[in-house]
Amino acid sequence: MGQLSKKLLVLAAMVAAALAVAELCGAIPLEDKDLESEEALWDLYERWQTAHRVPRHHVEKHRRFGTFKSNVRFIHSHNKRGDRPYRLRLNRFGDMDRHEFRATFAGSHVNDLQRDGPVAPAIPGFMYAGVNVSDLPQSVDWREQGAVTGVKNQGKCGSCWAFSTVVSVEGINAIRTGQLVSLSEQELIDCDTADNNGCQGGLMDNAFEYIKNNGGLATEDAYPYHASNGTCDAVEAKGSPVVVRIDGHQDVPANSEEELAKAVANQPVSVAIDASGQAFQFYSAGVFTGECGTELDHGVAVVGYGVDSDGMAYWTVKNSWGTAWGEKGYIRMQKDGGFSGGLCGIAMEASYPVKTQSKPKPTPTPRRALGERKSQ
C-alpha cells in the first residue's frame, strides 16, 4: 500500500473516530453558576457549540443566543424541580426553538400545504384481536430477543417514516427467520415516491405497501443512507444479497393502548407521535410524561413495554435521532396514562408488517403525511 493510501486510511479513521465521539457525546451538565449572568450563559453557549460541533457564523450566533438561553432555563428549571419521572439535558438541539426543531427533525422540510393523499390499504382485520390482555407478559423487549438493530440517525431529512417502517420490518424478519438484517431507509426515500415524499415526509402504511409490491427491501449495506433525496437506483436495490419481503401490513385498532400492547407483545410496531414539544426535544432519561398533543408529526417504533421501579408503565420507543438523544436513542413513554389515543397520540395510528396472504383491499382513506404541516 502506498503512502498516500495509508494517509487516507488514517484520515478516514480519524474522521470516523471524531464522528463517533460527537455521536456519543452526552450533554454539557448545567449548574447554577451557568445561569448567573449573561457572560456565564454566553460561555456555556460557546462550550455547547464546541462540544456538539455546531458551526454558527457571528450574526446567526447572536440571533440564536436568546433561544439558547430560553432552552437552558427550561431544562435547568425542570431538573431542579425534580417533580417528574424524567430528566432533560442540553443536547445538540440546544439553540433551536420549537418551530425550527419540529420543521427539521419532527416534521423535516414540511410542505406548506396539507396533502390529503390516499393511504395504502391494510390487510383487513387485526390478527391479535383474540389475544387476552391478561395473558400478556408484564414486560417485553425485542432488543433482548435480537429483533432490533442499532439506533440510526435520520439527520436533517424528514425521513422518520422510513426509519419507523424499517424498524418493524427488520423486527418481523428477525422473528420469522432468526436473522437480524439492517435494511435500507434510503431505498424507501428514493424509490417509494408514488405516495411518499422522501425527505419531505411520508407514511409508514404506504412504505409497507411499496415493500410488498416491490418484492422486498434491500439491505443497508447494499443501499446506504445519505440523508437526502436521490434517484432510485433499482439495480443497486435489487442487487442486494438479502432482500427482505413482507406480504402487507395491518393497522392496530385506533386509540387503544390495550390493542397496541397485544401487537407489541408479538412484534415491533410502527407508530406516529407528536414529538414537537420542548420537553420531548430535550428528553434525557426516565419515563416521559411531558406535555404533548396529538398533531402526529413523527414516525417511531415501539419495540417493547414494561413497568419501572416506581410502578409506572411505559412503552419502549426507538427513535431515529442518533444515540446521543434520550436513553441512547430510545425514549420510555408513559403507557396506560388515561390519555385518549395514548400519550402524544402513540396509539392513534399504529401499524405493523405481516407475513400472511393479503385479502381484498378496502378503499384507501385520506391521512396527512408525517412531516407535513396543516395549511394555515
UniProtKB/TrEMBL annotation:
Outline the segment boundaries, as ranges, of region: Disordered. Answer: 354-376
Q: Which Pfam families match?
A: Inhibitor_I29, Peptidase_C1
A GO term, aspect molecular function: cysteine-type peptidase activity
- Keywords attached to this entry: Disulfide bond, Hydrolase, Protease, Signal, Thiol protease
The similarity comment for this entry is:
Belongs to the peptidase C1 family.
Write down the PROSITE patterns for this protein, in alphabetical order.
THIOL_PROTEASE_ASN, THIOL_PROTEASE_CYS, THIOL_PROTEASE_HIS
Name of the molecule in the record: Uncharacterized protein
Q: Which domain of life is it from?
A: Eukaryota
Task: Please state every residue range assigned to the domain named Cathepsin propeptide inhibitor.
Answer: 45-101
Where does the signal peptide begin and end? 1-20
All residue ranges annotated as the Peptidase C1A papain C-terminal domain in the record: 136-354
Q: Which InterPro entries match?
A: Papain-like_cys_pep_sf, Pept_asp_AS, Pept_cys_AS, Pept_his_AS, Peptidase_C1A, Peptidase_C1A_C, Peptidase_C1A_papain-like, Prot_inhib_I29
Q: Give a GO biological-process term.
A: proteolysis
